[in-house]
Amino acid sequence: MNQIKLKRIGSEILQELSVICAQEAHDSILKMINITNVTVTNDLGLAKVYYTTLEDVDRKALTKDLNDETASYLRTKIANRIEIRHTPKLRFEYDNSIEYGNKIEHIIEEIHKEN
Asked: What pTM did the predictor assign?
């Protein structure tokens, strides 16, 4: 499938998930996460949803809860909002990019202090 179309669909899913989590969700799990990115496979069978959280929680348990308990609920909500033939299954993964960026920044600061 066209990569531009896949990015557009991923962007739409990202936007809708963000609105659902921020404004409409009654579940405490959804209130504590921030959606950072969504990538969609070529066949639209799977959408990887990358998230972060500001609260100190067990990431593995949170990811398991999101994938087991809330993914089907969110998929149904998205299917009602976005007009595509097949709504992809959602798989949540924790986004480590912020922590990685902070680690690199800390290393750079240490190098500058040594000089």
From this structure: 0.84
Q: What are phi and psi of 5, to 5 degrees?
A: -65, -40
- Residue 81: the pLDDT is 92
What percentage of the chain reaches a pLDDT higher than 90?
Answer: 53
The CATH number of domain 3-114, selected from 1.25.10.10, 3.10.20.90, 3.30.300.20, 3.30.70.20: 3.30.300.20
Cβ neighbours for 80, distance < 8 A, ≥ 6 positions apart = none
**Distance between CA atoms of 13 and 37, rounded to whole angstroms?**
9
Helices (H), 66-96: 71-81
Query: Domain residues of the chain, as ranges?
Result: 3-114
At 83, give phi and psi (nearest 5°): -90, 90
